[in-house]
Amino acid sequence: MCNVFYLLVIVSCVWIRATAHESGYSLIVEHAFGEGEFQKRGEILFSNLKGDEASFKNPVQLSPSEVRELEKIAKQDGMYKIRMSTKLQEVSSKTEDSSWVSTFTYANQLLGTDLHHALNIHTDGLGSIISISIVPVPCIDCRHDDTFDFDTNVIVTVPIQAQSPDTAGFLTKIEEEKRKKEKQANEPQSFFGKYWMFIVPVVFFMMVSNAAQQQQ
Amino acid sequence: MMLKKSAMNRYLYVCVVSALFFVLSNALYVDQIGKYDWTKNLIGKVELVAFDSSVSISKNVFVATDKNVVASISAKNGNINWRRTLAFNDGKIKSLNHVRDGIVSVTEAGVARVFEASSGVTKWDVNLAASKTEEEFLVHQVAVLEQSYTEGNLLVVLTNTEIITASLSKHHPKVKSVAFDQDISGAEYNKLLIDSQSSQILHFQLELRRGISVTVYDAKQLEIISQANVQNDWLATLDTVAVLEGNQLLYSCNEPESEMLYLVDFTSGKVLNSVRLELFDIESVASIVSVSNKDVTTHGPNVLLLHGQGKVSHIKVDDGDVKIGWKKELKSLREVVTKQLGSEEYSFFTSIDNQDVTITAMSVKTGLTDDSLTIRYQLPANTGEISSIHINMFLKRTTPIGFRALLTTTADTVLLVAHPNRLAWQRDESLASISSANMLDLPLSDGDAGIEAEFEEAERTSVPDMFAKRVKAQASQVVSFFKQMAKELDEGTLFKHKTRDPLIQVEGLTRDPFSLHKMIVVVTKAGSLFGIDSLNGEVVWRYYSSLLTDRDIHLYVQRTTAHFPHPPQALILGLDPQQQLNPVLLELNPITGEVEDKTDVLGGIKSPIMQATLLPNPDSTHLRPLLLLDTDLNVHLIPKTAETESVLKQLNLYLYDINSLTGLIRSFSIKSSNVAKPTWSVTVPNTHRIIQFGGKPSGEKIDSLGRPLADRSVLFKYLNPNVVAVLSESLEQNVDRCSLMLFLIDAVTGQMIHSIVHKRSQGPVHLVHSENWLLYSYRNAKLRRIEVSALEMYEGKTQFNSTSFSSFHVRPNPPTILQQAYIFPYGISSIGVSKTEKGITSRQILFGLKKGSLFGIPRKLFDPRRSLHPNEKHREEGIMPYSPEVPVPPELFLSYNLTLEQIDGIYCAPSALESTSLVFTTGLDLFFTRTQPSKMFDVLKEDFDHMFIGAVLIGLFIAALVTRRLSQVKQLNKSWR
Amino acid sequence: MQVSPSGQQKIGKRKEKWTLDLSMRRGEQRNDLPSPPGYLTEKLPAAEVAAANEGSHLDLVDKRSWDIALAPIKGLPMNIFIMYMAGNTISIFPIMMVGMMFFRPIQALMGIRATTRMLERSKQYILQTLVYFLGNCLALGLAVYKCNSMGLLPTYTSDWLAFADPVQSMEHVGGGFTL
Predict the structure, then answer these.
(1) ipTM surpasses 0.90
(2) What is the pTM (predicted TM-score) of this model?
(3) All structural domains of chain B with their residue ranges
(4) String of b and e for C169-178 (b: at least 16 CB within 10 Å)?
């Protein structure tokens, strides 16, 4: 009986661990073609509360009419816009406030790379979203078929720690130099040890001149 | 021979040893001070004035200003005798009195100081709020009880919780206080008066709908002598209450059907007498004016009632009887003040009619006045409207009194006016709060302008005609040059310097060949504009308009003087900070100061303006159009012509808008003048707020595209002109949790190029962004020191695209960012960087230090590639080894031994000399100087011995000829033997 | 201590001069001194001598021409040693050496006309001129190599950095805090 109980506990722990990586939160991503309305495109799932890693979840396929619209907009030099909500709850679609971060790219650039792009999301490492940007990435080894599917690569970056003035390193360097100088001063220096570089050429020249004299 | 050799050896030895002691100095020579730099000391907007009361005609005027400065100004010529800046932590200065001991100033936070009147030295100071926290303590009113020399004067301070007295005479003042039962209400419902004869402190407090409660304290023991309540329920302001001699209080009631004057004894609260106002033909009293001195012993039995439009009636209280005296009516009466000196009591009536000020002095007892007691003065143009008047009354021998008036205006100008309409001096104190400054080249001289004019008609005339014209023009220039030289020879000024600056040798407001003489156009927060001559700091032109008061003013220079014959033009945009009023647009010629109102051009703008920027490309008249974006995303161009619209179409313009209140950064793409399309948006975390941003200066010339390394390859710089640096500070005050974040955003695509977080740091942050580097200073809250961080961006060893740069190009690798931080030993109030025309000279970073100096240091000290252990490569490239502290040697102070208080802006402008950059600092003091970061490599030094070298050259040449001839003769003779 | 025959007649009028009159007037013959031993006054027939010496003459000329042609190449090792001693720093001595090393081959190449004329007589003069030319070019190449090792040749990107044009930006940006 006890064994079964323990087994259940272990299994449930494992099950919780297995699904634990699914915890985290997801934020809605919407897109718009040109001046059109924003429509839902998918969700970005952040795997932990810090917002370190993310992946694109539930992507919406492009319908043929949307593809045609994208091509039309590309011909007019229009933009393809993407925006992501910064708050977990439902937000209104006003773009004036800070509940959305948005970015854009020109539609013809996007079509030029066959809809392969990277989404760079910048968070502050404590859960707030700062910015999102979309970069059409030319991809080398992928198939060029006629299916217009978004191929997204999500990259999350956080601000890096700034370097502060390196006082510790400087102090150790000064101490090392002081120690080296002290050691040098302490070492008994013989006369020969200090002045060998003057003595050797003089001896050399004397020998050469003797040899020359003898030859003569 | 041997002796000579040894002497020579010794001489050589001395030379060599002394040469080792020579150290190259970067500092100025003593005689160079003042040649090409000037400084202007200012005090700020005058708020409190105290005349020197020790003598009848004050020689000095003591003022306290909004910049927390206490200063003594000479009444004769307006120069500053001395000036003391108080720390901002002490709060604004609440009162200023001149007493026997000196100048007493009390600040809002309760710090009382006494300064020596002649020198400004602090005699003593005391913190009256020693035991209280900041929020609770607020000083309302201050009075000084003058007692005999042995007893010493007493400083009486009324705060929101208590009355405090401090003795001014001994070295350590005894501070006593008596607290109230509850916090008293606002300052306008309280009056503090003193009685020097009976050493009493009188406190009048108005409680709405209850009446006035009068408390009399004994000044020495701070015990309540009497406390009385004067009951009434209609009194709403203390303006209609006056205190008279003999413990009497006079106040009026304006309630309909009971307009009366009441006379009350305030020690007991009993009504002594009441009179109906109709008896005196008065409808309702606006205010009652008695002597403005806080000492009740100077208040006599006379008061003045102000009622109606400029009507004044004199009331005398005689033994409990309220009698009416004389009556007068004055037009456009603005203010009445009564002053008493000796046995004379006079009232000063000020009437203001547009720019005309009339101040009339009338004897209070008799109501008589005459011309010798009237000052009629017209304010000079562009000095604003009068905001306050301070009268200095003095006794004279012939007429009973004389007086002078110190006027302060809305443009922060201070004027002292004497009888009958003489202006003694004027000080433009709005220059102490400059919001932006531009340095502009002066226009060409007439001769050069003539040459430029030839090119105007270049297409229409043929080549020989143009040649003939050119020859004529140059011939006339030669003739005028010789005439000028002859004139100077006549006067004997041929070799004298025309100006005190040895490099500027052109008089007047024309451009000199090195373009070092500039016109500094300055916009002040008070709403006035000034054009300052950069040679000596004099104001050339000024402009003030009531349209610009209380507005945020932005100056945009659309065209400089470089394009003759088109005149230079600048636009002034005045926006209402509350966004309720319509914007104001003025067109200004920055050299002459002529202003034209062009607000009608803004007629089509309905919503508030969000952003404004000058387009980088000019139109065919070399005018850069101004682009305005309003909150409805409509785009407006000024001037709106087909040409400017095509200029806009050719640019790919992206405008970014940083809203520091919401923390949102947005950008718009503007391709035509119709509408702006929103492109990207970025938000800072809601625990942070944006405090600083830095874009790159437009049209910057970058000298080299990369850095040559020791192995002769090039490290190419990441020269993205669209990068914007945004700094945000956390809202946390706790030292362990506050942080600063820096974001480098590409303003076109919205990509985050780099971002850094500084933990345990806070602002204020000063930022400089240029070329491919960024320098900013912040405060390390944990270690309590100021740190400076330098950032540089590099592309790598190869250039991605060497012809054009577009933010939409997808690069294989992101740029390499190098960052390093250093400790700065002094507080920084502002940072600037030198600017030269071609960018070849190395840059110098200018720091405005809080201790009052301007410090310039070469930027290569802030090279992030400095390392602790430099190897061969570092040495070859000339990179210094890393040391964590920034050295601040005093010989690199551009302000040598001057003290420049509160530096808040450093502006740099290039000159035609590549080695020289002009520096202008603003703040409480103005300072202008030149800096040469790589020494003066393109001009011969001042003391270059032209005469000596010329003489030697000519002498040697003649000697060579002569000796050649001689040797020829000698040889000939020899060959004849 | 000769008294000229013409002067003897005037002996009474002029003082005696102890001079040697060495000037030979035209057509005059000296017949007062005996001729030195082995001196023949008749001229020898030239053709015999030429025929006898032609073989050795040609050999000599050849040898001489080869000497001239190989001179630059023979000088190369010494030049290499001088360059090695001069060092790679930029100071007056190495620069002088390099300058000299540049100048000599160029001067030789300029005067190649005169040298070819000298070499014309030998049989292999084409080969010799070619060798001479090549030798000078090698010397020039050595000088260029020395310049390169001193770092004077613009072979790296950092040398062309000053001539790079500024990059044009395709987009423009403006803005700031909300007004």
Answers:
(1) no
(2) 0.85
(3) 945-977
(4) bebbbbbbeb
